[in-house]
Design goal:
The complex is a heterodimer. By secondary structure, chain A is an all-alpha fold. In chain A, 76% of the residues lie in helices and 0% in strands. Chain A contains ten helices and no strands. The radius of gyration of chain A is 20 Å and the shape is globular. The termini of chain A are far apart. Chain B is mainly alpha-helical. Chain B has a domain of 100 residues. Chain B is 53% helix and 5% strand. Chain B has seven helices and three strands; from the N terminus they run ααααβααββα. In chain B, strands 1-2-3 form a three-stranded antiparallel β-sheet. Chain B starts with 10 loop residues before the first helix and ends with a helix. About 19% of the residues of chain B have low confidence. Classes of the chains: A mainly alpha, B mainly alpha. Chains A and B meet through α3, α4, α6, α7 and α9 of A and α1 and α2 of B.
Chain lengths: 196, 213
């Protein structure tokens, strides 16, 4: 089968081909299809491009290594989003720990209060839309991770409630509740933007 | 539950989130990904033995081996071995030669049986043993303690070396030495040998006297 033919296959058919015949071309097409949506999802969740790239690559490596653990009863997209989400949460925890340690160390040595510098607002290089993007991203990062994930999957990735429920391993009702709470928190944080 | 998607109060938030710039993967994303995969594959193919002999893995195992050798070396130097030190060990009791009074009876009867066939020499020595023991008993008055004496049973050869028949082995008020538990044998010399030794003793005494002068 040529690469052109592989492009016509669904995600589930491609992973099946990769599972059965170890066809790297099928895996490559899956990577092409999912690299940008996953980058978008993980970047909005973590807020750091380098960490995001690392997490998405790690997700692809996991798909490659553990391809046999995928069961065809589930949608491939929910499987890969679940892997990426779990890795992103782990990375977030690691970042939090690292930040905590560095701040604690600073305080111990110098006996001074330390404020984390905010480099996000750069009017000299950012356009209006860029600034707006940054403000929204900062607001997203302030929302608690549980609600943040649900809101991103719904409003940024535009997935269905059922898909989100499967990815987060919760009921559809809980998904809706979390999205609602997440949106409320965001609304508070972005009040000044809606005035325009 | 109210349909949250048609709730107009969150329209602003939804619009804001949907208007966010789409993030794209870096240009070398796939190349880096396949590099990482192939790197991981290479690591996976290395067996445990191969990993053990990698230079980075060799150092700890080598260090461990050296540490074990050193520990073995030092523990053997500073901790005395369980083996018997010939300088500190007690001398072996020659049970074939010496026996206590209790076992004398059984042994002597055995020997009697063995030697009854015509060994006159043994009969003679047994008589001597009896007479000697009677003499020593009367001298030391220590007849009540059976463990005091050692009796030499039998005679090993017909040469001039043979064993004392009955000897007191405790320090008695009369100056006798208790020889219980000692591994010794008493040699009886012939008259010629005794005379030679006596001559040597006299010569040594003379030499000592001369040197003192």
């Amino acid at each position: 089968m040529t690469e052109k033919n592989f492009n016509d296959l669904t995600d589930e058919e491609l992973i099946l081909e990769f599972q059965n015949n170890n066809t790297i071309a099928a895996f490559e097409i899956l990577v092409k299809r999912y690299k940008n949506p996953l980058m978008n999802y993980i970047f909005r969740f973590l807020g750091n491009y380098e960490s995001c790239t690392d997490v998405v690559q790690e997700t692809m490596i996991k798909v490659y290594r553990y391809k046999d653990s995928y069961q065809s009863i589930a949608k491939f997209s929910t499987w890969i989003y679940t892997i990426a989400g779990n890795l992103a949460k782990t990375e977030l925890q690691r970042q939090k720990r690292r930040k905590m340690f560095s701040i604690n160390d600073y305080g111990k040595e110098s006996n001074e209060n330390y404020e984390i510098p905010d480099d996000s607002f750069r009017p000299d290089i950012e356009t209006d839309s860029g600034i707006k993007n940054e403000i929204i991203q900062k607001a997203i990062l302030k929302v608690s991770p549980v609600y943040r994930q649900a809101v991103i999957l719904r409003d940024v990735q535009e997935l269905s409630y059922e898909e989100i429920a499967e990815i987060m391993n919760i009921t559809v009702g809980t998904v809706k509740s979390r999205i609602n709470r997440g949106r409320k928190q965001l609304q508070k944080l972005l009040k000044h933007i809606y005035k325009d | 539950m109210k349909n949250i998607d048609i709730d107009p109060k969150f329209d602003g938030v939804k619009r804001a989130l949907q208007s966010l710039k789409k993030i794209e993967a870096p240009l070398n994303f796939e190349q880096e990904l396949f590099d990482r995969i192939s790197q991981g594959e290479n690591e996976k193919h290395l067996s445990f033995i191969d990993k053990l002999f990698l230079p980075s893995h060799l150092l700890p195992s080598l260090g461990l081996a050296v540490a074990i050798v050193l520990m073995f070396f030092f523990t053997n130097i500073f901790i005395p071995s369980t083996g018997e030190n010939p300088l500190l060990a007690n001398p072996r009791v020659r049970t074939d030669v010496i026996s206590t009074n209790q076992s004398v009876a059984t042994k002597s009867t055995e020997n009697n049986k063995k030697t009854k066939k015509g060994n006159d020499v043994f009969n003679l020595t047994e008589k001597e043993q009896l007479s000697l023991s009677n003499k020593t008993k009367s001298k030391t008055n220590s007849t009540n303690d059976p463990n005091l004496g050692i009796r030499i049973t039998g005679r090993h050869s017909l040469s001039s070396t043979y064993y004392n028949s009955s000897v007191l082995t405790s320090v008695s008020p009369n100056g006798f030495i208790n020889k219980r538990g000692l591994d010794y044998k008493q040699i009886y010399l012939q008259k010629l040998q005794k005379a030679q030794i006596e001559q040597m003793r006299k010569k040594i005494e003379e030499m000592i006297r001369n040197s003192e002068r």
